[in-house]
């Protein structure tokens, strides 16, 4: 079984992906970490984020088994990842990795922005997770404060809106809902309610 979870920044798709994977005993891939890792390699090497040959080389050298998720989840890397993810050659370099992960038994949960439309268009279940930008900014700010980071929620909201614009309007693999995807709006849901709603969507699809 392959579950495709798509959604904008800070919508909660990563948390939902992990919880669904645990519930159905499937493997999980946060595809956003791939682009964050490319961005991290570019920044660490002192390269411009729009240096296409360097970005492609970094994408081809990724080893997801060695990812430090906490280090890749910083707010700064989120914006940088949005830039490199708009490079068509980078997306092409990571395409096979994501497809092979999804195809391996017993199946997987992948979350990102183009899973149901590009990576796994034949996924058994496609869910698009969304929430109001202000709610997403509030949640992201709370996460960062819990981690000991001082943040301005207004800056986070502005960044989220910029990323939404960039992700939705990039020429290759934009963030759009697949025609057969189910929308899950978590604006008024806590995480447990969101997980229950997602499981209900999967169960309806399986029946």
Q: Could you walk me through the main structural features you see in this protein, from its secondary elements to its overall organization?
A:
The two termini are 13 Å apart. Strands 2-3-1-4-5 form a five-stranded parallel beta sheet, with helices on both faces. The protein is globular. With 207 residues, it is α/β, with parallel strands linked by helices. 56% of the residues lie in helices and 12% in strands. It contains ten helices and five strands. It has helices at residues 13-24, 32-44, 52-60, 69-72, 75-84, 88-103, 115-119, 133-146, 153-169, 191-206; strands at residues 2-6, 27-30, 108-112, 125-130, 182-185. It has one domain (2-206): P-loop containing nucleotide triphosphate hydrolases (Rossmann fold, 3-Layer(aba) Sandwich), CATH 3.40.50.
């Amino acid at each position: 079984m392959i579950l495709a979870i798509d959604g904008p920044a800070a919508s909660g798709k990563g948390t939902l992906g992990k919880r669904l994977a645990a519930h159905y005993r499937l493997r999980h891939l946060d595809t956003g970490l791939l682009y964050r890792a490319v961005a991290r390699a570019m920044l660490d090497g002192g390269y411009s984020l729009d240096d296409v040959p360097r970005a492609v080389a970094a994408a081809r050298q990724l080893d997801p088994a060695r990812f430090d998720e906490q280090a890749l989840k910083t707010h700064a890397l989120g914006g940088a990842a949005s830039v490199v993810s708009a490079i068509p050659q980078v997306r092409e370099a990571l395409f096979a990795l994501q497809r092979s992960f999804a195809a391996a038994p017993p199946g997987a949960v992948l979350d990102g922005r183009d899973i149901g439309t590009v990576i796994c268009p034949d996924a058994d279940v496609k869910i698009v997770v969304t929430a109001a930008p202000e709610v997403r900014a509030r949640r992201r700010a709370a996460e960062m404060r819990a981690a000991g980071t001082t943040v301005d929620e207004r800056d986070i909201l502005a960044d989220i809106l910029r990323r939404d614009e960039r992700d939705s309007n990039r020429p290759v693999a934009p963030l759009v809902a697949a025609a057969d995807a189910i929308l899950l709006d978590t604006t008024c849901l806590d995480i447990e309610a969101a997980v229950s709603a997602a499981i209900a969507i999967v169960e309806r699809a399986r029946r």
